[in-house]
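Researcher: Please translate sequence to structure tokens.
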Amino acid sequence: MLEGHKHALTAVAFVASGEMLASYSAEERALKLWRSGAKGFMAQMLSVTSRCQNTIALRPIKEAEKITPARALKTVKLDWISPRVVHLVREDGSSVTEQLK
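Model: Translation complete:
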């Protein structure tokens, strides 16, 4: 369903309508925004085609090797704050807000 990430996902979040999905891979340092080929969550679950709308390359985190996977999963937060704006809190507590174009 999400061909495009080369490493494990750290977080995913659907927009309320189910039409958009955000995915974050800490290993890749990439936030990707996806548009569903059909509306709704069930369309996603039934493997309706999705396509990446945007890939945001993120800066490296200082001393990332000291951040355990367990800590990353506790710290990372990925939320849609509106139908077109996604907010990511990374492993080190830094944040990124991205708006769809």
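Researcher: Any highlights?
Model: Helices lie at 41-45, 69-75.
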